[in-house]
Amino acid sequence: MRQIPILTLALLPAIALAEEPWGKVDRSSAPAMHEKACVSCHVRMYGGDGSKMYTRDGRLLSTKLDLLQRVTSCNAQVSAGWFPEEEGAVAAWLNDKYYHFKE
């Protein structure tokens, strides 16, 4: 019988509870954070209100984890100064509003 490392067993409850890559986050502040740090760049890139960034054909993201990684990257690029839980909140909000990824 194959042995499962003790560390893996210790992490199983945390893995089971974190059904989303961003964990349990409060999305209520995400729209304002997105407006302040993201919209102006997206408008420069795509015009209009910038939402085409999320709705265009050929977008590169295909999972919730991809989305979280992109938000993290953009946070660093624009020096928004968000903490990981704030990145998660924005990613979760974007998924709810635009992406609707299931996995």
Helices and strands in order:
Layout: H1 6-17, H2 30-37, H3 39-46, H4 52-55, H5 64-78, H6 84-99
Task: Walk me through what this model shows.
- With 103 residues, this protein is mainly alpha-helical.
- The protein has one domain (27-99).
- It has helices at 6-17, 30-37, 39-46, 52-55, 64-78, 84-99.
Q: How many strands, what sense, and barrel or not for the largest sheet?
A: none
Which spans of ≥5 residues are poorly predicted at pLDDT below 50? Answer: none
* H-E string: HHHHHH
Query: Rough shape?
Result: globular
Offer a quick outline of the entry.
This protein is an all-alpha fold.
Features:
103 residues, mainly alpha
